[in-house]
Amino acid sequence: MPRWYRDNLPNVRVSARIRKENPAVVTIGHLEKFWDGRSVPIGDPALRSLLYIANTYPPPTALVVIPAEIDRAELLALPLRTRTASALIQSGFLRDSGPLSVQDLLAIRGFGMGSLLDLMCVAEAAPLVRSEVSVPATAAGTPDVVGKGTAWRELTDVLELLLAAANEFHGAVTVGDALELDLVELATDLGIAQAVDSHKIRDLTDVGILVGVIDAIRDLRTNMPERKLVIVEQYLYARTRATLAELGQTFGVTPERIRQVKNRIAAEIEELVGPEIAIIAAILRRKAGLVVRDDDLRRLLDTLFEYESIHDPAVALTRRIVEAALEYDSERGVCANREAREILDGFCKHSAALSDDVGLIDEEALRASLPDEEWRRLFELVVERSGLVRIGDRLALRSTKKARAKGAILTIGRPATLDEIVAESGLPRTNLGGLLSGIAGIVRASKTKWGIEDWIEDEYEGIVTEIKQRIKEDGGFTTLDRLVTELPEMFEVKEASVRALVATPQFLLRDGIVSLAEESEVALRDIDDVADGVTAEGWPYWSFRIHERYFDGYSLAGVPPEIARALGCPKNGSIRAVVSRPTGCRRISVNWHLASLSGASVGYISTSLSRLGVAEGDQVRLVVVKPRVVEFRLFDPEPGRRERRRSAGAVLTARTGDTRTAVLLERLKRRRQVL
Predict the structure, then answer these.
(1) DSSP per-residue codes, 126-183
(2) What is the dihedral of CA 381, 386, 390, 396, to 10 degrees?
(3) Which of 80, 192, 469, 577 is 20 to 30 A from 635 in CA distance terms?
């Protein structure tokens, strides 16, 4: 770096890339130590980092690089880069005399910040150039304000650039307006500690950063060969990129050759407008913030280019170059810059760690995990970007049924009925009770209400369980009066329901005293007394009529306990049974609970009924082939009657009296044969 940087900006920190190559170099003032014990050239990453510092903190445009007493032609004797020497020759400056300032040099076409640093470094080391570069004398009446070792007059041109940026990008009118914006931090870093609020910015500067970039890009496009222009437009700064292979095929070269050309073009554009693009991008990033919605970022760019023609290819390319320099990426309609993405990755991990078993998140703890107040201000945008969702007033990883159900209860804030949960969550009422039963931490507060476990002193586990619990509490028996008084009041159940359950085979009721019945005391009838008949194979069957709900997953209720026993189902137990007819059906479930008011039940029958081809109103026989094996058969008491009935479109309202009579006669005949 030129000595000007070491003298005037010694405390500016260098990048991690430079510190990696030499840990002793922390600031610009330490750069002299860079070559200690080093013999190989500086690497490209470190070089780009130094160029970035130079672009961020450019020297004053009035700074004299080549004094007047030096013959400009002698500059060609210096070990300059080829690009620097070529730009000087083509400019015609070497034929003139007088001093060359930073402003003069940067006005040369193709003479960017890289060439300026090259000339300054070489000139400072050359014997033909004096060691001290100069700045014009201080004007009378202008106060000398010292900041970071640099006098006010040495920073006049930098202030001009800052003021131009404030006016161009922030709409500032006075110097005070500009320094109230985010340029204050940059101005402080450059040593400007005092501002003047009495001057109009347009009275101080005619600098137009964006216009200058557009003009430079326009000239570049005009003089660029077709192949390079296609690479720029379709790959380097394209929103939808062609591949290197596709471009190589277009021009008949290898993808590697396209990559090499692309790298040279990128370096050329960086050399041409890199410093200006860096300034524009830095200001836009500060205005947009770490995280910003896609639409807001697009509007910010629209405002920047609002006075430029959208049909000008140079304007369109400049905009895409600025977008690339911003280094934002977009997810779910929210952009994040490079600095923010690491924080966002950690946010997503914290979200998962702070969620419960259904994915609801401790929002307060998640907010606290963000690094500072600025991030907490962006919390809702971060939530959108991370794909988290709002369920009521709760935050969740995903909008699952369980998360919506639990979120609804938490939003209601008290034990709620299924209808209230449906209204809050938007979930269907079907099987909602079963869904709630499968969520840890949610219990029944009563027969009709569900709530969070911590809210409820006595969880409702069903009337049967509550009856058993009180029998156990009272030493093996309790009074019917206690049950019909206490349970309806606590759990919103009807007294008639309590009495009906006490009368099931699960319990014994004698003289108002209720106790549990022994399973051995449960009396069952003979299968012949229960079956509606037997098949030709001698297998008992039980008949039932089809309802549409069976096809929707509902179980067949009211099955006689004797049928369940014949299928091998134990008391207060369940089994799975194979369906041998029709073939290809899933196994059914058989459940038999002594406390059931409707007897045993058979589940998972929809597949069997569908394969059997039955419809609502048809009568079907459940045939007990042997333990754990059943058949389903369609029963038509009058052959062809079912088809005639359907073709006529009649409503299926046939009574079963004749059928039941026939079944009863068949059962009596069979019993007579047995006897």
Answers:
(1) -TTS-S----PPPPTT-----BTTB-GGGGHHHHHHHHHHHHHHH---BHHHHHTTTH
(2) -150
(3) 577
For 365, list phi and psi in degrees, rounded to 5: -70, -35
d(CA 78, CA 128): 9
Name which of 127-141, 222-236, 521-535 the model is least confident about.
127-141
Half-sphere exposure of 293 (CA within 13 A, CB side): 8
* Exposure b/e, 272-289, CB count within 10 A at least 16 = b: bbbbbbbbbbbbbbbbbb
Quote the tokens at residue 252: 């008949």
Do the bridges between strand 556-559 and strand 533-534 make them parallel or antiparallel, or are there none, so unpaired? unpaired
What gap in Å lies between CA 568 and CA 588, rounded to an integer? 13
570-598: pLDDT as tens digits: 999 999 999 999 999 999 999 999 988 88
Residue 329 contacts residue 336 (beta carbons within 8 Å): yes
Q: How far apart are CA 339 and CA 345, in angstroms?
A: 11
- What's the average model confidence in pLDDT over 287-305? 91
Contacts of 433 (CB under 8 A, 6+ apart): 418, 450
Q: Is 438 helix (H, G, I), strand (E, B) or coil?
A: coil
225 Cβ contact partners less than 8 Å away, ≥ 6 residues apart: none
Q: Which residues contact 37 (CB under 8 A, 6 or more apart)?
A: none
State residue 592's pLDDT score.
93
Note the pLDDT of residue 652. 35
Q: What is the mean pLDDT of residues 646-670?
A: 48
Q: Which two tokens stand for residue 669?
A: 């005949």
**Torsion angle defined by CA atoms of residues 123, 126, 129 and 133, in that order, rounded to the nearest 10 degrees:** 50
Rg (CA), the chain: 43
Do residues 634 and 544 make contact, with C-beta atoms less than 8 angstroms apart?
Answer: no
DSSP tally for the chain: helices H, then strands E: 31, 22
Q: What phi, psi does 571 have (nearest 5°)?
A: -65, 140
Max Cα–Cα distance, the chain, nearest Å: 139
- pTM for the full predicted model: 0.46
**Averaged confidence pLDDT in the chain:** 80
- Phi-psi group of 476: left, alpha or beta (phi > 0 → left; psi -120 to 50 → alpha; rest → beta): left
* CB distance 245 to 255 below 8 Å: yes
Interatomic CA distance for residues 275 and 295, integer angstroms: 27
DSSP string over 511-556: TTEEEEPPGGG-----HHHH-SEE-TTS-EEEEEE--GGGGGT--E
List, in order, residues 6 or more apart from 638 with CB less than 8 Å away.
Answer: none
C-alpha angle 208-212-218 in degrees, rounded to nearest 5: 150
What is the token pair recorded at 30?
């330490």
Tell me the residue type at 201.
I
Instruction: List, edge to edge, every strand of the sheet that includes 360-361.
Output: 360-361, 394-396, 389-391
DSSP of 557-600, one letter per residue? EEE-HHHHHHTTPPTTEEEEEEEEESTTPPPEEEEE-TT-TT-E
Three-state SS string over 74-88 comes to HHHHCCCCHHHHHHH
- Kindly state the average pLDDT of the residues 17-45: 72
Strand 573-581 to 588-592 pairing: antiparallel
Q: Are 450 and 418 in contact (CB under 8 A)?
A: yes
Instruction: Please enumerate in sequence order all residues whose Cβ is within 8 A of that of 566, keeping only pairs 6 or more positions apart, or say none.
Output: 527, 540, 624, 627
Tens digits of per-residue pLDDT, 48-88?
A: 777 777 877 788 888 888 888 787 777 777 888 877 887 88
